[in-house]
Amino acid sequence: MLNVVIFGAPGSGKGTQSELIINKYGLFHISTGDVLRAEMKNGTELGKTAEGYISKGQLVPDELIIDMLAKVLDSNEETKKGVIFDGFPRTIPQAKALKKMLADRVTEVSAVVGLEVEEPELIDRLLKRGQVSGRSDDNLETIKSRLEVYHNQTTPLKDYYIEEKKYNAIHGMGSVEEIFARIEKTIDNL
Ligand code: AMP
Predict the structure, then answer these.
(1) Where are the beta strands (DSSP E) in the chain?
(2) 65 CA → ligand 1 middle, Å
(3) Which of 34, 36, 71 to mutate to test the pocket of ligand 1 (most atoms within 8 A of CB)?
């Protein structure tokens, strides 16, 4: 069973590449950002709480995210065929919780695909996406907070997964097809 974590800064192409990975490898897609946006749209308690963090570009607290992820895993049979985790984990406690949740389900993270993109390109992509996404967090001020949060809270995960011998750096610049070809090579070599 293949469980892939797609890792990278906001704007690094996680969502775009996840779609291509799903098409080729038939994995179940869990994007914690998408799940939170659906909760917001449905006006749930979690959605209301998450909104305050998301609009400021901050991370939603670990306990809420870990609980939400466990529910998605438990309520979707298709997760048993393998999952692509997109936007999760974003902190060390989340990574440790994921390890435990998967171990409890007699599986593990097969590989982390780390999309590496330079910061000016990230800002450029997110501003462009903001023109069409309608996302309240794709504006310059929130983008800057999201990148700062990424550097402070999420980049330590790279070393965590290097230590676990799971991290695969992918050069995330170039065309969508070029980047996907690099990812395919990594996954096919697992
Ligand atoms: P994304 O769609 O992955 O860019 O996520 C959008 C926003 O949702 C982030 O800026 C966070 O506020 C929140 N979020 C998504 N995933 C997580 C997570 N794993 N941990 C904490 N907050 C998250």
Answers:
(1) 2-8, 28-31, 82-86, 111-116, 167-171
(2) 9
(3) 36
